[in-house]
Amino acid sequence: MNYDYDVLIVGGGLVGGSLALALGNTPLRIGVIESIPEEKRLASSAGDRALALAWGSSLILDQIGVWQGAEKKAAPIRHIHVSDRGHFGKLRMSAQREGVPALGYVATARTLEEEVATRLDQSPVTMICPASVVGLKACGEAVHVSLREGDKSINLTARLLVAADGGNSTVRQLLEIGQAIGDYAQTAIVTEVETGKSSDFTAYERFTPTGPLAFLPVAKKRYSVVWTQKAAGAAALLAMPEKEFTDHLQSAFGYWLGKIALASRRQAFPLKLIRAERMTGERVVLVGNAMHQLHPVAGQGLNLGLRDIAMLAEMLTARLEFGEDIGEKAFLERYVQARQADLDRVIRFTDTTVRVFSTDFFPAAFARNAGLLALDRFQPGKRLLAQYAMGLGNRIPRFGPLSK
User: pTM, whole model, 2 decimals?
Assistant: First the structure.
């Protein structure tokens, strides 16, 4: 059978675009379907949001040629400081102790998306944009995809369809794949602050009775803030005048970085744990936010999505060498098995952390602080935690050249 494409990727954002680049040097014919024109995506205010990248994720981006340009605009995370407001427990990790230049990095979504878009323009990948998926059906050796491009209808075929179209995935809905949803009844307030003290590029995770408070370095005296609040508390904080809000934030965080001043507008996002009930359909696989959405407490959302596509790229590249069907059910099941342990571990860790650290009940608070203190002093345990924080809990898939 003749196919229009070997792999069609729905969603040209960071995860979908990275997968296209990871497969760009293979003989596979790759098409990327994106509903929003590139210039509108890059101009969106959402592009200003700061993203935490684990060290392992930078290695994945390096293989697709994105990291070389993005690193120049990213801030390194050289230290991680975890504390519990009003309690004695603390945990500290450093890149120097782990023998790496950085435990991770902070970069804006726009920086990464611009690098991905530039590389895609230089690749043999076909961009189908703006176009939306309106129907799909697997039949034998192909999946048939119906698109709407302006006032035109287009029908395409592929051997494999990858859904990287985000939390409101059209592909997942068309396949009628349900979701398991856990509502934390929390809201994340996101903003940026200027700090009184110069940063040594330390990322702070501070647990408070309302939820975690993260300060991520974006420059020597500038931090991105993610402040988790119960829904009612978030509404009150968002309604406050700037100075009153800043005073509450200063009280919650302390003076680790001196006096802080608000440097951008406040935005709010409801927090849920969402996981698709299955990862595949016939000749279809879900990756990134189309498959899973996490609480931002450990900053693992994008990192998990990049590991999804890195493993898929490695397995597809290996399968090509044997000339085997890249959309075969048994192959997709092996991919699910390859990703299962990492997905389960990260989701369980994130969910448990949120629940354990979002209460000030004394026995729970004492136990978690004793745990933080013990872990800080128990080097083997701290080393293991650092490895997971760096995205090195599993082997980094290889599908391209690595310059680091």
Answer: 0.91
The answer on pLDDT for 374 being more than 70 is no
Given a contact cutoff of 8 angstroms between Cβ atoms, the answer to whether 108 and 48 are in contact is: yes
Q: Answer yes or no: is 45 within a domain.
A: yes
Give the pLDDT confidence of 65-85 residue by residue, as tens digits.
Answer: 999 999 999 999 999 988 876
Alpha helices in 122-239 (DSSP H): 170-174, 231-239
Number of domains in the chain: 1
Q: 222, 268, 225, 271: which is closest to 249 by C-alpha?
A: 225
Per-residue pLDDT of 252-300, as tens digits, reads: 999 999 999 999 999 999 888 899 999 999 999 999 999 998 877 656 7
Main-chain phi, psi angles of 301, to 5 degrees? -60, -60
In which domain, by residue range, is 305 found? Answer: 5-74+108-181+272-358
Q: Which residue has the tokens 């309604």?
A: 239
Please name the residues in contact with 96: beta carbons below 8 A apart, sequence gap of 6 or more: 78
Q: What is the pLDDT of residue 362?
A: 46
Work out the angle at residue 170's Cα, subtended by the Cα atoms of residues 33 and 312, and round it to the nearest 5 degrees.
60
- Please state, in angstroms and rounded to a whole number, the distance separating the CA atoms of residues 374 and 72: 37
Q: Is the residue at 303 inside a domain?
A: yes
Lowest average pLDDT, out of 43-47, 169-173, 350-354, 358-362, goes to 358-362
What stretches of 141-294 show up as alpha helix (H) in DSSP?
170-174, 231-239, 242-253
pLDDT at 369: 53
At 156, is the secondary structure helix, strand, or coil?
strand
Instruction: Report the chain's mean pLDDT, rounded to a whole number.
Output: 88
pLDDT digits (tens, 9 = 90+) for 309-364: 999 999 999 998 888 899 999 999 999 999 999 999 888 877 777 666 555 554 45
| DSSP codes joined into one string, 98-127 | HTSS-SEEEEEHHHHHHHHHHHHHTSSPEE
Examine residue 101 and state whether it is found in any structural domain, yes or no. Answer: no
Longest dimension (CA), the chain: 66
Count Cβ atoms within 10 A of the Cβ of residue 262 and give its class: 0-12 exposed, 13-18 middle, 19 or more buried.
Answer: middle
Q: Is residue 27 part of a domain?
A: yes
**184 in helix, strand or coil?**
strand
What angle do the packed helices 109-121 and 14-22 form, to 10 degrees? 30
Q: What amino acid is encoded at 261 in this protein?
A: A
Tell me if 84 sits within 8 A of 209, measured CB to CB: no
CATH number (domain holding residue 306):
3.50.50.60
